[in-house]
Structures are given as structure tokens and as C-alpha cells.
Design goal:
By secondary structure, the protein is an alpha+beta fold. The protein contains ten helices and eight strands.
């Protein structure tokens, strides 16, 4: 009885101090809320910053489209005057010519090029916001995933520390002949299984941690600790109809806006190619000092290529094909959007229903019961097999509950992602 009392005291000491050791955080840890992580995403994420430069690049295309063609100036002087024997003779008896030409684009080509460049800017801006939508979902998903994986790791850690303590004390008891060897072997087997599963979870956490750190550009040496406030009541998905979510997606999804703008861009390009079939006009002024029928000749010249053979037929045909293709891609994007919204809504409703079926106090009651089971097993009030069964059931329950909570939040974020709007503020 004295040995059992000593074991009970050891276990009570473990319960008193293990909680603080498990929850202790490294000096290199960074505790963040999702809102703070989103701010870092906007400020530091490299793909987002690079996409902003793409917008600036596209805006520069508008400047280029607005510019007029430069006039062309040609000057000719006598290289060697045989009469006077002079090089580069600018005298009265030498010959000089000057010609100035300006290209004038016909059929509104310049305006069409400007409209095409503006459409390109819109697509670059839409691509930025669509990238932001994707990165934000990835951020939130990794954020919640890391949070609940860390909570599951705490369960593994506490169970491993408890079993290590039990195995150590039971080894001492075995040496005294109070514990059967098979009981220690079975406990060690359970301990090794837990340690193996804990290692796999730690590797998963490291990968999730790395993905999250890359999104917000946190140094690899820093451990991110997500701060997820306890929500008394999560948003109810059932209050939203499928049509409401679909209408929101149709209005706010930037990938759909890109597809629509692509159709507009293709249409503008077709109009430009048709305009390119119209020849441009070149207007010029000519001066000839003495090489024409009169001295100091001044002339006006106008030139235009005759569209007998090349009427830009190939580019027009290509532009028509691209336009029809972009229209089909728009229809395909709309179809895909409908399925994405429906799938995200069903997933959220299913996880919402499963969460509502759970007793809110079940988790706390189960945890309190397991503490009593640990004490009773240490006092040999319950057998080894029963203890192992209950221990496995408890761990499985905690892990699945954490996974379900993560799935619940992830499903709400998927609705935000598929609708392109922050419907649910978590």
C-alpha cells in the first residue's frame, strides 16, 4: 500500500506541473490572431507585391498607347561637289533636300489601342484581387489547421509524459515483484505507438508552420502560435440559401471577372485587327534646293499603301477564334463556380449538423473522466486492458474533435473563398 501511495503522489505531482511545462512557449514564438496574420500577408507576401508591379506595368501600356508616332525627318546634302571641288558643300550652287513625314493612323486605331490597354489593366487588377482571395484562404486554412494540430500535440504530449511516469514507477515496482512483466511490456508498446504518432504529427505541424510562415514571411526560426478566440456561437450556414451565395459569387468572384474581361479584351482586339486592315496615311513636306524643275522647290506629299493583297485577313481570323474561345471559357467558369458554391455550402452544412449533434459539455466531462481513470489505474482499481481501451478512446475522441472543429472553420472559409466575399467573419 505504501508503494501505491508513493505512485499516487508522483502522479499527482505530474498533474500539477505538467500543464505548465507543456504550455510553455519558446522565446522565438510569435502569437498571432488571424487579423494580424492577414495584415502581414498584405504587407509582406511576395506574390502579392509582385502582382502589384504587374499592375503598374499594365498601366504603362496605356501611356504607350496614347503616344503619337514620331515624325520622320530626312535631310540630304551633297557629299562632294565636282564643280567646286568641295566636300559637304552648303554653298549656293550645292544641292540640299529636306523631307518631313508624319504617320496618321486611320480607322480609330489609336483609340482602340488605348481601350485594349485599359482592358489589360483591368485584368491585371482582377488577377491581383483573385490572388489575394486565394492567398487569404490558404492563410486562414493553414492558420486553423496549425492551431488544432498544436492542440492535438498537447494531448499526445500529456499522455506520453503520463505513460513515461507510469512505466518508470512500474519498473521499480517490477523489481520488487509487485508488477507483472507483461503489464509493463503492454504499457511500453502503447507508449511507443504514441511517440510514433506524435512524431508524425510534429512533422505535419512543421510543414503547416512552414507554409504559414512563407505566406506572411516570418523567419524559419520563429514558431507561430495561432491565437483563435473561443467563439460562443459560430455563424449559421443554414440561414443562407444557395441562390444567395451564388449571386454573391457571381458579383464578387474576380476569376469570373477576369473571364468576362477576357471576352471584352478579345472583342476589342478583333475591332483593332479589323481597323488594321485600313491603310494608314503618311503626310509629308519636301524641300529641294535645286534638284527639281525650279530652285527651292517646296512640295506636299501624301502616301498610303493600297490594300490589294494584305488586308490583315490572318490576324482578323485569329482574333475571331480567340473571341469565341474566350466566350466558351467564360461559360465554363460560370459552370465551375456554381459547383464550387454548392459543394462548399453542402460541406459547411454537414459539418455544422455534426457539430450541433455533440453535447457541448461532452469534451470537458470526458477529460475529467480520464483524469479519474488515470488515478484509478495507478491505484490498480481498473485493469490494464480496460485502461488501454479507455485511453485509446479518449485520444481518438480528442483528435477527432479537434479535426471536426478545424473542418467547421475551414468549411466556413471555403464559402468565403468560393463566393469571393467575407460572408463569415470568424
Amino acid at each position: 500500500m505504501t508503494n501505491r501511495l508513493a505512485l499516487f503522489v508522483l502522479l499527482m505531482l505530474y498533474e500539477t506541473f505538467s500543464g505548465s511545462s507543456i504550455s510553455a512557449q519558446s522565446k522565438d514564438s510569435l502569437q498571432l490572431t488571424l487579423t494580424q496574420a492577414e495584415q502581414l500577408l498584405l504587407q509582406k507576401n511576395i506574390p502579392l507585391l509582385a502582382q502589384r508591379y504587374n499592375i503598374d506595368s499594365a498601366k504603362a501600356g496605356i501611356i504607350t498607347a496614347r503616344l503619337y508616332d514620331n515624325p520622320q525627318v530626312t535631310f540630304e546634302n551633297t557629299l562632294y561637289n565636282h564643280t567646286t571641288g568641295k566636300l559637304f558643300d552648303f554653298g549656293y550652287d550645292s544641292e540640299n533636300t529636306l523631307q518631313v513625314q508624319q504617320l496618321i493612323k486611320m480607322a480609330g486605331k489609336r483609340n482602340k489601342e488605348i481601350q485594349l490597354a485599359r482592358s489589360g489593366v483591368k485584368m491585371s487588377e482582377f488577377q491581383f484581387f483573385d490572388l489575394l482571395r486565394t492567398l487569404r484562404f490558404s492563410l486562414a486554412d493553414n492558420f486553423y489547421d496549425l492551431y488544432y494540430k498544436q492542440k492535438s500535440l498537447q494531448t499526445y504530449s500529456s499522455q506520453i509524459v503520463f505513460l513515461q511516469t507510469v512505466v518508470k514507477v512500474f519498473e521499480q515496482q517490477k523489481a520488487m515483484g509487485n508488477i507483472a512483466p507483461k503489464e509493463i511490456i503492454r504499457l511500453k508498446s502503447l507508449l511507443y505507438d504514441l511517440q510514433h504518432d506524435e512524431l508524425q504529427l510534429r512533422l505535419d505541424i512543421q510543414q503547416t508552420q512552414s507554409d504559414l510562415a512563407l505566406l506572411i514571411r516570418v523567419p524559419a526560426t520563429v514558431t507561430i502560435v495561432p491565437d483563435v478566440p473561443v467563439a460562443a456561437h459560430l455563424p449559421v450556414v443554414a440561414q443562407y440559401s444557395y441562390q444567395t451565395l451564388l449571386d454573391t459569387a457571381m458579383e464578387n468572384r474576380y476569376d469570373l471577372k477576369i473571364a468576362k474581361e477576357t471576352v471584352n479584351y478579345s472583342n476589342l482586339n478583333l475591332r483593332l485587327q479589323k481597323a488594321n486592315a485600313v491603310p494608314d496615311l503618311t503626310v509629308g513636306f519636301s524641300y529641294d534646293k535645286q534638284g527639281n524643275f525650279e530652285r527651292n522647290y517646296n512640295g506636299l506629299n501624301v502616301s498610303m499603301p493600297l490594300p490589294f493583297f494584305n488586308r490583315n485577313q490572318g490576324n482578323i481570323k485569329m482574333a475571331k477564334a480567340v473571341l469565341e474561345s474566350s466566350k466558351l471559357q467564360l461559360e465554363g467558369q460560370q459552370d465551375q463556380l456554381q459547383h464550387e458554391v454548392m459543394n462548399s455550402m453542402k460541406e459547411a452544412l454537414q459539418t455544422e449538423k455534426l457539430m450541433s449533434d455533440f453535447d457541448p459539455g461532452f469534451e470537458n466531462d470526458y477529460t475529467a473522466m480520464m483524469k479519474e481513470i488515470e488515478k484509478n489505474y495507478s491505484l490498480h482499481n481498473i485493469g490494464l486492458l480496460e485502461f488501454i481501451d479507455l485511453y485509446d478512446a479518449y485520444r481518438s475522441n480528442v483528435l477527432k474533435m479537434n479535426e471536426l472543429k478545424y473542418n467547421r472553420l475551414s468549411a466556413l472559409e471555403k464559402i468565403n473563398y468560393t463566393t469571393g466575399s467575407q460572408i463569415f467573419h470568424l
